Amino acid sequence: MSGAKILVVDDERAILKLMQIALKGHGYEVLEASSGEEALVVASTKRPDLAVIDWGLPDMEGIEVLRRLREWSQMPVIMLTVRDAEEDKIAALDAGADDYVVKPFGMGELLARIRVALRHAARVQDEPVIEAAGLAIHLAERRVELNGEAVKLTPIEYDLLKALAQNAGKVVTQRQLLRHVWGDVDPDNAAHYLRVYIGHLRKKLEDDPSRPWRIVTEPGVGYRLAVEPPEA
Hints:
- InterPro entries: CheY-like_superfamily (IPR011006), OmpR/PhoB-type_DNA-bd (IPR001867), Sig_transdc_resp-reg_receiver (IPR001789), WalR-like (IPR039420), WH-like_DNA-bd_sf (IPR036388).
- This is Transcriptional regulatory protein KdpE.
- Residues 5-118 form the Response regulatory domain.
- One of its GO terms (molecular function) is phosphorelay response regulator activity.
- It is found in: Cytoplasm.
- This protein is an alpha/beta fold.
- Helix content is 41%, strand content 22%.
- The protein has helices at 13-25, 36-46, 62-69, 86-94, 107-122, 155-165, 174-182, 187-205; strands spanning 5-9, 29-33, 50-54, 77-81, 99-102, 129-132, 135-138, 143-146, 149-151, 171-173, 215-218, 222-225.
- The strands form 3 sheets. A 5-stranded parallel sheet has the order 2-1-3-4-5, sandwiched between helices. A 4-stranded antiparallel sheet has the order 6-7-8-9, with helices on one face. A 3-stranded antiparallel sheet has the order 10-12-11.
- α2 (36-46) runs parallel beside α3 and α6 crosses α8.
- The protein is globular.
């Protein structure tokens, strides 16, 4: 991932300077844009490997830049935002964001999110085995192993884990998970099913189900399958 091209889209010069220094210091090539239109031009001509886009831009909202990018590009996109309301996070994820970081943010956190997004993008999408957080999900055989030991899952538990694993490191909204596992259902009425089955998975996959680290709750938004154990 060293040498990956990162497009940073923000109209605050201080943020751009900070990101330039931090990203270059970690071996990334940095491209900059201070408006939505400039970002779209840079993205189409320079073909970055990942974009970090601020929600509040002078000519259009960052989420509109994201929607227009998604018309022709699947590169990872991380949204930067001062908005921490659940509906804004869900809107960003539903529009195609891979992740979001709320301002003010720690550079260490953002760099970790970038690494996860780049790793996810580098994986072959039809890979027969997905590995994350000590898990191995064998797609062709619908078989799951935890630290080399077989884990028996029900069909619904497996489908739920598969949806999380195919997006390991990324937030998957409750609506997306419900649609993947149960089809076209009313999310308000079916949300309790999701909580129940997430609980079943945690009992089978977590070291301590009361303190889960593999399947992380993003309050009010959805769930994230961790790629690696938390640092001690």
